[in-house]
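Handout, section B. The chain below has 343 residues.
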Amino acid sequence: MTATAQPFLLGIEIGGTKLQLGLGRGDGQILALERRTIEPARGAAGILAQISEVVPILLSRVEITRDQVAAGGIGFGGPVDVTRGVVTKSHQVAGWDRFPLAEWARAHLQIPLVSIQNDADTAGLAEARFGAGVGFSPLLYVTIGSGIGGGLILDNQIYRGSGAGALEIGHLWIVDRTTSDLDVVKLEDVASGWAIAAAARRYAERQIADGLGEWKVLQSADGIPSRIDTAMVAEAAKAGDQEASYILGKAVFAMAHALNQAITLLAPHRVILGGGVSLIGEEFWFAPIRNQLNLNVFPPFRGSFDVVPAALGEDVVIHGALALARDAVANVDGSHTTETRPS
Protein backbone atom coordinates (compact mmCIF):
# COMPACT_ATOMS: atom_id res chain seq x y z
CA MET A 1 0.00 0.00 0.00
CA THR A 2 1.45 3.38 -0.89
CA ALA A 3 1.67 6.35 1.45
CA THR A 4 -0.94 8.26 -0.59
CA ALA A 5 -3.49 5.48 0.01
CA GLN A 6 -3.14 5.78 3.78
CA PRO A 7 -5.50 8.00 5.81
CA PHE A 8 -4.42 11.16 7.59
CA LEU A 9 -3.49 10.64 11.23
CA LEU A 10 -2.85 12.88 14.24
CA GLY A 11 0.04 12.33 16.63
CA ILE A 12 0.32 14.08 20.00
CA GLU A 13 3.15 14.22 22.53
CA ILE A 14 2.27 15.46 26.01
CA GLY A 15 5.26 15.95 28.28
CA GLY A 16 6.00 17.89 31.43
CA THR A 17 7.38 20.92 29.61
CA LYS A 18 6.79 20.23 25.90
CA LEU A 19 3.69 19.69 23.78
CA GLN A 20 3.95 18.55 20.16
CA LEU A 21 1.28 17.75 17.59
CA GLY A 22 1.85 16.37 14.11
CA LEU A 23 -0.11 15.17 11.10
CA GLY A 24 1.08 12.27 8.99
CA ARG A 25 0.21 8.83 7.72
CA GLY A 26 2.24 6.67 10.10
CA ASP A 27 4.87 5.85 7.49
CA GLY A 28 7.84 7.69 8.99
CA GLN A 29 7.02 11.06 7.45
CA ILE A 30 5.54 14.07 9.27
CA LEU A 31 3.43 16.32 7.05
CA ALA A 32 2.95 19.15 9.55
CA LEU A 33 4.27 19.76 13.06
CA GLU A 34 3.54 22.29 15.80
CA ARG A 35 5.39 22.69 19.11
CA ARG A 36 4.25 24.49 22.23
CA THR A 37 5.74 25.08 25.67
CA ILE A 38 3.66 23.72 28.52
CA GLU A 39 2.91 25.95 31.49
CA PRO A 40 2.66 23.50 34.42
CA ALA A 41 0.81 26.08 36.54
CA ARG A 42 -2.13 25.85 34.12
CA GLY A 43 -2.43 22.13 34.80
CA ALA A 44 -3.99 19.54 32.53
CA ALA A 45 -6.76 21.94 31.52
CA GLY A 46 -4.19 24.32 30.06
CA ILE A 47 -2.63 21.57 27.97
CA LEU A 48 -6.00 20.40 26.68
CA ALA A 49 -6.79 23.99 25.68
CA GLN A 50 -3.49 24.20 23.78
CA ILE A 51 -4.25 20.96 21.94
CA SER A 52 -7.67 22.27 20.92
CA GLU A 53 -6.04 25.46 19.61
CA VAL A 54 -3.30 23.72 17.64
CA VAL A 55 -5.33 21.06 15.81
CA PRO A 56 -7.08 23.57 13.46
CA ILE A 57 -3.69 25.11 12.67
CA LEU A 58 -2.32 21.74 11.60
CA LEU A 59 -5.39 20.95 9.51
CA SER A 60 -5.10 24.24 7.67
CA ARG A 61 -1.42 23.68 6.92
CA VAL A 62 -2.17 20.35 5.23
CA GLU A 63 -5.43 21.72 3.78
CA ILE A 64 -7.67 18.98 5.10
CA THR A 65 -10.82 18.95 7.21
CA ARG A 66 -11.29 17.37 10.61
CA ASP A 67 -13.34 14.49 9.22
CA GLN A 68 -10.37 13.41 7.08
CA VAL A 69 -8.37 12.45 10.20
CA ALA A 70 -9.03 8.76 10.71
CA ALA A 71 -7.25 8.19 14.03
CA GLY A 72 -4.98 9.71 16.63
CA GLY A 73 -2.11 8.45 18.74
CA ILE A 74 -0.91 10.02 21.98
CA GLY A 75 2.42 9.54 23.75
CA PHE A 76 1.90 10.72 27.33
CA GLY A 77 4.65 11.63 29.80
CA GLY A 78 3.56 9.34 32.60
CA PRO A 79 1.89 6.01 33.33
CA VAL A 80 -1.28 5.24 31.38
CA ASP A 81 -4.02 2.62 31.30
CA VAL A 82 -3.77 1.65 27.63
CA THR A 83 -6.85 -0.56 27.55
CA ARG A 84 -9.14 2.13 28.91
CA GLY A 85 -7.34 5.08 27.32
CA VAL A 86 -6.91 6.71 30.73
CA VAL A 87 -3.98 8.65 32.14
CA THR A 88 -2.93 7.18 35.46
CA LYS A 89 -0.87 10.12 36.68
CA SER A 90 1.57 12.86 35.71
CA HIS A 91 4.54 13.55 37.96
CA GLN A 92 5.04 17.03 36.47
CA VAL A 93 1.59 18.52 35.83
CA ALA A 94 -1.47 18.47 38.10
CA GLY A 95 -4.93 17.47 36.94
CA TRP A 96 -4.17 14.29 35.01
CA ASP A 97 -5.01 11.66 37.66
CA ARG A 98 -7.35 9.07 36.11
CA PHE A 99 -8.15 11.42 33.24
CA PRO A 100 -9.98 9.72 30.28
CA LEU A 101 -7.68 11.17 27.63
CA ALA A 102 -8.74 8.94 24.72
CA GLU A 103 -12.40 9.68 25.37
CA TRP A 104 -11.65 13.42 25.56
CA ALA A 105 -9.81 13.34 22.23
CA ARG A 106 -12.62 11.47 20.52
CA ALA A 107 -15.22 13.93 21.79
CA HIS A 108 -13.38 17.26 21.59
CA LEU A 109 -11.12 16.63 18.58
CA GLN A 110 -13.74 14.57 16.75
CA ILE A 111 -11.34 11.71 16.06
CA PRO A 112 -13.05 8.31 15.88
CA LEU A 113 -10.09 6.18 16.96
CA VAL A 114 -7.56 7.16 19.64
CA SER A 115 -4.70 5.11 21.06
CA ILE A 116 -2.56 6.25 24.00
CA GLN A 117 0.74 4.94 25.37
CA ASN A 118 3.47 6.13 27.68
CA ASP A 119 5.82 8.49 25.84
CA ALA A 120 8.94 6.33 26.31
CA ASP A 121 7.14 3.29 24.88
CA THR A 122 5.88 5.45 22.01
CA ALA A 123 9.40 6.71 21.27
CA GLY A 124 10.75 3.17 21.38
CA LEU A 125 8.12 2.07 18.86
CA ALA A 126 9.18 4.91 16.55
CA GLU A 127 12.86 3.99 16.73
CA ALA A 128 11.99 0.34 16.06
CA ARG A 129 9.97 1.13 12.93
CA PHE A 130 11.69 4.18 11.48
CA GLY A 131 14.94 4.86 13.33
CA ALA A 132 17.99 3.22 14.84
CA GLY A 133 16.10 0.03 15.72
CA VAL A 134 14.84 -1.00 12.29
CA GLY A 135 15.43 -4.73 11.88
CA PHE A 136 16.26 -5.41 15.57
CA SER A 137 14.18 -7.40 18.04
CA PRO A 138 14.12 -7.47 21.02
CA LEU A 139 14.89 -3.77 21.16
CA LEU A 140 15.50 -1.89 24.40
CA TYR A 141 14.92 1.87 24.22
CA VAL A 142 15.87 4.21 27.07
CA THR A 143 15.30 7.96 27.12
CA ILE A 144 17.41 9.97 29.55
CA GLY A 145 16.13 13.51 30.01
CA SER A 146 14.67 15.29 33.02
CA GLY A 147 13.60 11.78 34.02
CA ILE A 148 14.43 8.31 32.70
CA GLY A 149 11.98 6.08 30.85
CA GLY A 150 12.26 2.88 28.91
CA GLY A 151 10.47 0.61 26.50
CA LEU A 152 10.86 -2.93 25.20
CA ILE A 153 9.83 -3.47 21.59
CA LEU A 154 9.24 -7.02 20.37
CA ASP A 155 8.71 -7.55 16.65
CA ASN A 156 7.72 -3.88 16.18
CA GLN A 157 5.18 -3.94 19.02
CA ILE A 158 5.31 -2.43 22.51
CA TYR A 159 5.66 -4.93 25.35
CA ARG A 160 3.54 -3.91 28.35
CA GLY A 161 3.89 -6.90 30.64
CA SER A 162 0.68 -7.64 32.54
CA GLY A 163 -0.87 -4.45 31.17
CA ALA A 164 0.16 -1.63 33.50
CA GLY A 165 3.45 -1.08 31.69
CA ALA A 166 6.98 -2.42 31.63
CA LEU A 167 10.61 -1.33 31.49
CA GLU A 168 10.29 1.49 34.02
CA ILE A 169 14.06 1.45 34.19
CA GLY A 170 14.31 4.90 35.77
CA HIS A 171 12.77 3.46 38.93
CA LEU A 172 15.26 0.58 39.12
CA TRP A 173 17.19 0.48 42.39
CA ILE A 174 20.94 0.45 41.93
CA VAL A 175 24.01 0.46 44.17
CA ASP A 176 25.97 3.72 44.07
CA ARG A 177 29.55 2.52 44.52
CA THR A 178 30.99 6.03 44.22
CA THR A 179 30.34 6.61 47.94
CA SER A 180 31.95 4.83 50.86
CA ASP A 181 28.51 3.90 52.22
CA LEU A 182 27.43 2.03 49.06
CA ASP A 183 24.10 3.86 48.89
CA VAL A 184 21.12 2.24 47.19
CA VAL A 185 19.38 4.80 44.98
CA LYS A 186 16.93 4.96 42.09
CA LEU A 187 18.55 5.30 38.68
CA GLU A 188 16.54 8.45 37.96
CA ASP A 189 17.91 10.09 41.12
CA VAL A 190 21.51 9.94 39.90
CA ALA A 191 21.59 9.59 36.09
CA SER A 192 18.75 11.80 34.82
CA GLY A 193 19.39 15.29 33.52
CA TRP A 194 17.61 16.69 36.56
CA ALA A 195 19.85 14.66 38.92
CA ILE A 196 23.09 15.64 37.15
CA ALA A 197 22.20 19.32 37.28
CA ALA A 198 21.02 19.07 40.90
CA ALA A 199 24.32 17.49 41.99
CA ALA A 200 26.24 20.26 40.27
CA ARG A 201 24.07 22.94 41.86
CA ARG A 202 24.68 21.51 45.34
CA TYR A 203 28.43 21.54 44.76
CA ALA A 204 28.27 25.11 43.43
CA GLU A 205 26.35 26.25 46.52
CA ARG A 206 29.04 24.72 48.75
CA GLN A 207 31.68 26.53 46.72
CA ILE A 208 29.92 29.84 47.26
CA ALA A 209 29.44 29.13 50.98
CA ASP A 210 33.19 28.49 51.29
CA GLY A 211 33.95 31.77 49.57
CA LEU A 212 34.96 30.14 46.29
CA GLY A 213 33.49 31.04 42.92
CA GLU A 214 36.02 29.75 40.45
CA TRP A 215 34.36 26.48 39.51
CA LYS A 216 34.03 26.31 35.74
CA VAL A 217 30.42 25.15 35.77
CA LEU A 218 29.40 27.95 38.13
CA GLN A 219 31.12 30.48 35.89
CA SER A 220 29.20 29.14 32.90
CA ALA A 221 26.01 29.84 34.87
CA ASP A 222 27.08 33.46 35.56
CA GLY A 223 27.70 32.57 39.18
CA ILE A 224 24.07 31.55 39.80
CA PRO A 225 23.71 27.88 40.86
CA SER A 226 20.05 27.66 39.85
CA ARG A 227 21.04 28.28 36.22
CA ILE A 228 23.32 25.23 36.03
CA ASP A 229 22.15 22.55 33.59
CA THR A 230 23.42 19.20 32.39
CA ALA A 231 25.02 20.63 29.25
CA MET A 232 27.23 22.91 31.38
CA VAL A 233 28.38 19.95 33.46
CA ALA A 234 29.17 17.96 30.31
CA GLU A 235 31.14 20.79 28.73
CA ALA A 236 33.19 21.25 31.89
CA ALA A 237 33.90 17.53 32.06
CA LYS A 238 35.06 17.57 28.44
CA ALA A 239 37.39 20.43 29.33
CA GLY A 240 38.95 18.32 32.10
CA ASP A 241 37.17 19.72 35.17
CA GLN A 242 37.57 17.18 37.95
CA GLU A 243 34.31 17.75 39.84
CA ALA A 244 32.21 17.86 36.67
CA SER A 245 33.86 14.64 35.53
CA TYR A 246 33.04 13.05 38.88
CA ILE A 247 29.35 14.07 38.71
CA LEU A 248 29.03 12.87 35.11
CA GLY A 249 30.94 9.69 35.92
CA LYS A 250 28.42 8.81 38.63
CA ALA A 251 25.62 9.11 36.08
CA VAL A 252 27.51 6.97 33.56
CA PHE A 253 28.23 4.27 36.14
CA ALA A 254 24.60 4.22 37.30
CA MET A 255 23.27 4.03 33.73
CA ALA A 256 25.62 1.19 32.85
CA HIS A 257 24.69 -0.65 36.06
CA ALA A 258 20.98 -0.44 35.26
CA LEU A 259 21.50 -1.46 31.62
CA ASN A 260 23.61 -4.39 32.79
CA GLN A 261 20.65 -5.72 34.77
CA ALA A 262 18.19 -5.07 31.94
CA ILE A 263 20.42 -6.82 29.39
CA THR A 264 20.95 -9.78 31.70
CA LEU A 265 17.18 -10.21 32.04
CA LEU A 266 16.03 -9.36 28.50
CA ALA A 267 18.95 -10.13 26.16
CA PRO A 268 18.09 -7.43 23.59
CA HIS A 269 19.78 -7.32 20.20
CA ARG A 270 20.13 -3.55 20.40
CA VAL A 271 20.00 -0.88 23.10
CA ILE A 272 19.06 2.64 21.95
CA LEU A 273 19.76 5.60 24.21
CA GLY A 274 17.86 8.82 23.54
CA GLY A 275 16.86 11.96 25.38
CA GLY A 276 18.72 15.16 26.11
CA VAL A 277 21.42 13.62 28.31
CA SER A 278 22.48 11.34 25.46
CA LEU A 279 23.43 14.44 23.48
CA ILE A 280 26.55 14.51 25.68
CA GLY A 281 27.87 12.29 22.92
CA GLU A 282 30.14 9.38 22.19
CA GLU A 283 33.29 10.09 24.20
CA PHE A 284 31.71 11.03 27.52
CA TRP A 285 28.45 9.06 27.44
CA PHE A 286 28.18 6.16 25.00
CA ALA A 287 31.79 4.93 25.07
CA PRO A 288 32.13 4.76 28.87
CA ILE A 289 28.72 3.10 29.19
CA ARG A 290 29.77 0.47 26.63
CA ASN A 291 33.06 -0.05 28.45
CA GLN A 292 31.28 -0.66 31.76
CA LEU A 293 28.86 -3.06 30.10
CA ASN A 294 31.67 -5.02 28.47
CA LEU A 295 33.31 -5.40 31.87
CA ASN A 296 30.26 -6.39 33.89
CA VAL A 297 27.55 -7.88 31.67
CA PHE A 298 26.69 -11.58 31.87
CA PRO A 299 29.69 -13.05 29.95
CA PRO A 300 27.72 -15.24 27.49
CA PHE A 301 25.86 -12.10 26.32
CA ARG A 302 28.98 -10.15 25.36
CA GLY A 303 28.93 -9.40 21.65
CA SER A 304 25.23 -10.25 21.30
CA PHE A 305 24.03 -6.61 21.52
CA ASP A 306 25.14 -3.09 20.79
CA VAL A 307 24.44 0.33 22.28
CA VAL A 308 23.67 3.16 19.84
CA PRO A 309 22.21 6.70 19.85
CA ALA A 310 18.59 7.34 18.95
CA ALA A 311 18.06 8.53 15.38
CA LEU A 312 14.76 10.44 15.27
CA GLY A 313 15.61 13.43 17.45
CA GLU A 314 13.00 15.70 18.99
CA ASP A 315 10.21 14.34 16.77
CA VAL A 316 10.54 10.75 17.97
CA VAL A 317 7.35 10.63 20.07
CA ILE A 318 5.30 12.12 17.24
CA HIS A 319 6.57 9.43 14.86
CA GLY A 320 5.56 6.82 17.41
CA ALA A 321 2.16 8.40 18.06
CA LEU A 322 1.40 8.38 14.33
CA ALA A 323 2.40 4.71 14.25
CA LEU A 324 -0.04 4.02 17.10
CA ALA A 325 -2.78 5.75 15.13
CA ARG A 326 -1.97 3.74 12.01
CA ASP A 327 -2.14 0.51 14.01
CA ALA A 328 -5.53 1.55 15.39
CA VAL A 329 -6.88 1.93 11.86
CA ALA A 330 -5.33 -1.37 10.78
CA ASN A 331 -6.82 -3.21 13.75
CA VAL A 332 -10.32 -1.94 12.93
CA ASP A 333 -9.86 -2.91 9.30
CA GLY A 334 -8.72 -6.37 10.34
CA SER A 335 -5.49 -5.90 8.44
CA HIS A 336 -3.00 -5.18 11.24
CA THR A 337 0.55 -4.98 9.95
CA THR A 338 3.93 -3.82 11.23
CA GLU A 339 5.24 -3.10 7.74
CA THR A 340 5.54 0.67 8.19
CA ARG A 341 8.86 1.63 6.65
CA PRO A 342 8.95 5.07 5.03
CA SER A 343 7.76 5.03 1.42
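Note. Residues 242-266 form the longest helix (25 residues). Compare this with the example in section A.
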